[in-house]
Amino acid sequence: MNPNPNPQPNRRPRAATAALALLLAVLPAAAHEGHAHKDETPPPATRGDGPQRLADGSVFLPKLTQRQLALRTQLTAAGEQPVSVELTGKVVLDPGSGGRVQSMIGGRVEAPAGGIPALGQAVRKGELLARVHPAVSPLELGGQTAQAADLRASLGVAERRLARLKELEATVARKELDAAEADVQSLRERLAAIGQSLRHHEDLRAPVSGVVAAASVVAGQVVEARELLFEIVDPANLRVEALSYEPRLAADIAGAYGSAGPGQDVLLAFVGAGRSLREQAIPLLFRVEGGNATLALNQPLKVIAQTRSQVKGVPLPTAAVVKNAANQEIVWVKNAAERFSPRPVRTQPLDGSRVAVVGGLQAGERVVVQGAALVNQVR
């Protein structure tokens, strides 16, 4: 008699066990054949097809987004660049082509026939800008009027005496006649001076030809003596003054640039340096040679002074350097068609629109030179 009347249930567990053992034997061999996965760093995973900041800090930027942001890259090239120093400056008046108009007396302003010149109006040298009538108190006016009356009375007496002496010219000494004539002439001149002082006014005229840069006066305004009323400049002849805390810099300047903001650069020519400290610094004077910036008097300006010393670096546009969350200067390097990595760098200014990367970047790398700020904002 058969001791196992139903052999089918025992056969199925044995078949399942054999299949599981075969699978466990095959999987390790397939996984480790030829290399070890534990030594590899998997590429950062992207979340969709949109712009995004990856786990390693790099940025994934699709081609379509790059075109929309108008990104531009540049292949870097290293070379010798001039060492530059950044100074703080401002636009000042050229003493040869500009001037100031001040009143020598205090009084009330009167507009001339053509009116008081407005800001930006062109004026010629010697043109009447305004007239100032002196401010005289009633007591002073009364004293001058009384003095004029006394002089008129004395003049009348002197004239009558002179007339009598001339009638007796044959019997009077010549010296008495000359003394009487001198007294009459003196009294007339004194009376004329008093009368002119009562009607005196000061004409304010343009000292140079140019454009009115500042006008702080209106008709009827009461001004003080030595108060600045007009400033006249020649827009084609402006100066920039900067302060340097390194006295030896003045002897090493080879060129200079000025920057009033993005896209507002001017070319400067070094004129000279002062020999007296101002605010514990040496004043340096530059002449504006040209540029695409419209400068105003007393406008602050960033001055980049290039020296004759050289340093090895990679020149890049200023827009290529941005700040990261730690306030470090970085550039964005293009590693692949749609991947950009941040690179901390050290820079020195070259001119108003370029910097020299002296550390953190090698020649032959492709760097974002337009739109780097937009790449830096991707999160």
Helices and strands in order:
Layout: H1 8-31, E1 52-53, E2 59-60, H2 63-68, E3 72-75, E4 79-92, E5 99-102, E6 107-110, E7 122-123, E8 128-134, H3 138-167, H4 174-198, E9 202-205, E10 210-215, E11 222-223, E12 228-233, E13 239-244, E14 253-261, E15 264-273, E16 282-291, E17 300-317, E18 322-323, E19 329-336, E20 339-344, E21 346-349, E22 354-359, E23 366-370, H5 372-376
Signal peptide: 1-31
Pfam family, one: RND-MFP_C
Domain Multidrug resistance protein MdtA-like C-terminal permuted SH3: 316-372
Defining key terms:
379 residues, alpha+beta, conserved putative lor/sdh protein from methanococcus maripaludis s2 fold, OB fold (Dihydrolipoamide Acetyltransferase, E2P), 2 domains, five-stranded antiparallel beta sheet, elongated, disordered N terminus
Our estimate of the beta-strand percent is: 35-45%
| Total domain count | 2
Fraction in helix: 10-25%
Tell me the Rg in angstroms: 44 Å
Largest sheet: 6 strands, antiparallel, barrel
* CATH architecture assignment of the largest domain: Beta Barrel
Indicate the low-confidence ranges by residue numbers: 1-9, 19-38
CATH class of the largest domain: Mainly Beta
Shape: elongated
Question: What is the overall pLDDT average?
Answer: 82
The count of helical stretches stands at 5
Q: What's the N-to-C terminus distance?
A: 79 Å
Pfam families: RND-MFP_C
InterPro entries: MdtA-like_C (IPR058627), MFP_Cation_Efflux (IPR051909)
Keywords: Coiled coil, Signal, Transport
Signal peptide: 1-31
